[in-house]
Structures are given as structure tokens and as C-alpha cells.
Amino acid sequence: MIGDLFDTIEEPEVNIVKLSDGTTILHKYAYRDSADLMQELSKLLKISPFRNMVTAGGHIINVAMTNCGNLGWVSDRQGYRYSPIDPLTGTHWPKMPLAYKNLAILAAQQSGFKDFAPTVCLINKYLPGSKLSLHQDKNESTFNAPIVSVSLGILASFLLGGQSRSDKVSRIALTHGDVMVWGGPDRLRYHGVAPIKDGYHPQTGECRINLTFRQT
Ligand code: MD6
Ligand code: FE
After folding, report:
1. Which residue, of 7, 34, 123, 187, is most buried by count of CB atoms within 10 Å of its CB?
2. Is residue 10 in some structural domain?
3. What are the angstrom distances between the C-alpha of 91 and each of 26, 27, 51, 121?
4. pTM, full prediction
């Protein structure tokens, strides 16, 4: 009975849902580690801060980005690619924190991908109004490894399409601590993020942070 008095910090339960052969959503899988993940983020932002990259066409990407790991995803007038050097600082990206790597490997294992060894963690910051158009992730050197995507902060409506652009798109609500994994037959599924609505989360403020782990 006394125990109930102190049972006020509720931790939501992890719920793992297999959406298809290659796609899994791990609701609240990163919830427990989220404060650690955010603390590591503030450290690595001191080395490689968020910035708005441009596309080959000269458009400014409205999602602010940075990376950690051996390689980072970059976009400029030459197009998209992976680079070991942060073009903003001229030096290596910050090391991928162990807490990041372990979380991504465990989430991949839980989703049936046992050999995932992430080399890149792309970090995105979405402000209200930011969106990511439907696309495939195909700049990686191998499609054998899955994509692991960790959502932190305010709500996002994730757009999950199929193998071709014209396939039906479903919307998945992603909240703080949710993890999505897609790989195997679903590795090249179209996906995106609908325009983010206003919101507030105590750990991130008025934004959504997304950590996307890849192997390349
Ligand atoms: C997300 N991000 O933010 C998913 N893909 O939930 C992506 O799918 C993504 O942010 C390729 C390049 C940058 C990205
Ligand atoms: Fe993507």
C-alpha cells in the first residue's frame, strides 16, 4: 500500500509491433534512455552544431541536421553523400556515443536484424512546420542493414509508403521514445514526415529530434 504512494513516476510500457516482414515499431523503446540520449546530444552539438544544409538545387532544407559516427550524411550543391568530415568544422564528426550505438543495435535485434553495426547517426531537428517529403534512403553502400529511427520530443506523423512512390501511404504517430526499424524486404520503402504541429516536450522544448542510424 505504502508503495503506491511513491509509484508516481510512471514509465510507459514498451510495445513491439511488427507491421510487416521488414518493418517494426518499438513503442517507447528509447523512453527510459531518453534523458541520457539528450545529454549526449548537447555534448556532441558543441562539436558539430545543427545547421540547415542546401540541396543540389539550392533549396535550404528546413530540417536542421548534424551527425555523429564514422561518417555523416551531408547535402550541398554537389548533392547528397556520406562524408567522414563535417564540412562546417573541417574535422571528423563526433564519435557515436555508446548509449546511441547500443540502443540502435538492440532495437535492430528486437526487430530481427542481428548483425546491425551502425556507422552513421544522422540527427534531425524538426521545428513546427518542418516536414520531410516522401523518399527512399538509398545513398548507403549496402541495403543489407536496416534503418533504425529514434523519435524524441514532440509528436510526428510518420509517412510509411511502399516500394514505389505511388503505393498507399499510412500515417504512424511517433512520440517521445518510439523507435522504427525498417530493413530486409522493406529497406527501400518510401517514407517521410508530415508537417510537424506545434507542441512542447519537457526534454526537447518545442521541437522533435530524430536519430537515424545507418550502416554504410
Ligand atoms: C525521420 N528521417 O526524421 C526520418 N532520411 O523520422 C529520414 O527518413 C531521413 O532525416 C534521409 C535523410 C534524412 C532523413
Ligand atoms: Fe529517410
Report:
1. 123
2. no
3. 34, 36, 15, 16
4. 0.94
